[in-house]
Write a structure and sequence with these properties.
The protein is mostly helical. The chain contains twelve helices and no strands.
Length: about 260
């Protein structure tokens, strides 16, 4: 009986974790990592901005690390491109994105007055994220580096959509939210296109792609949660108000 139930459960999980007919690989990967997306949405960084209580020092620390992340990401893209000699289309894409990431690093350094990465130390979450992408670029076939970077490219506009980035009030962080969490940003689709081509050609497997995609999506959430939490944890102001009222009621109840 137990063996039968175990087999049935295994078959159920196999069906649940398989790509549905007509579903793209990227949609499948996104669907399978919903838990990490919610963790990012409820993270100390995002909710600190929503509740307008994020400590500026914490924000600054996050941004310096994020700039290092973009530099290291550019380096990982270059490594993957250098290993893509047999695929000119993919190599061109990787080199183009490497230049784009490097350009972002250079422009951000004008704001944060960073000369180079040598004197900067990453926290545990950021370092793990950087190391995982580097490992993929050095040890997996190059297309998997593209897979590893989709969470970064796709999660940010999704977060912007969830919190109403373009018309919400996030205090001193409003401009940053609108520029960096723009729901209309669709750059991730170019990454997804490269991956879908490789999947249809049989170069990429859903299982390996999910392993890598899940890891970097988790890393995104952990990096967002690496800053100190402030204020109310609820997503909406009404949730914060309800929590406050409950606390007040408890105070009067036990006086």
């Amino acid at each position: 009986m137990f063996k039968y139930v175990t087999v049935q459960l295994a078959l159920f999980l196999l069906v649940e974790c398989s790509i549905k007919e007509g579903q793209t690989l990227s949609d499948y990967l996104w669907e399978q990592t919903a838990e990490y997306q919610q963790q990012a949405l409820n993270s100390s960084l995002i909710q600190g901005m929503v509740n307008k209580c994020l400590n500026p020092s914490q924000f600054g620390g996050y941004m310096v690390q994020d700039n290092v992340f973009t530099y290291e990401g550019s380096e990982s893209l270059k490594i993957a491109a250098g290993r893509s000699d047999g695929n000119v289309t993919l190599q061109t894409f990787l080199n183009t994105k490497a230049e784009s990431w490097l350009s972002y690093w250079e422009s951000s350094n004008e704001i944060w007055y960073i000369k180079n990465v040598d004197g900067l130390t990453l926290g545990e979450a950021a370092k793990t994220y950087v190391d995982n992408i580097r490992d993929v670029s050095e040890n997996e076939i190059p297309i998997y580096t593209v897979v590893a970077l989709i969470p970064c490219e796709k999660l940010w506009p999704w977060l912007g959509q969830q919190i109403g980035a373009m018309d919400g009030n996030f205090g001193v962080y409003t401009l940053w939210v609108r520029e960096n969490l723009d729901p209309e940003s669709t750059g991730y689709k170019k990454y997804e296109q490269q991956v879908q081509w490789a999947y249809e050609a049989g170069t990429v497997t859903a299982e390996k792609a999910l392993e890598i995609f899940s890891t970097t999506m988790r890393d995104e959430a952990n990096f967002f949660n690496s800053v100190a939490r402030c204020g109310c944890r609820a997503i909406s102001p009404s949730g914060c108000l309800l929590t406050t009222l409950l606390l007040i009621s408890m105070i009067f109840l036990y006086r």
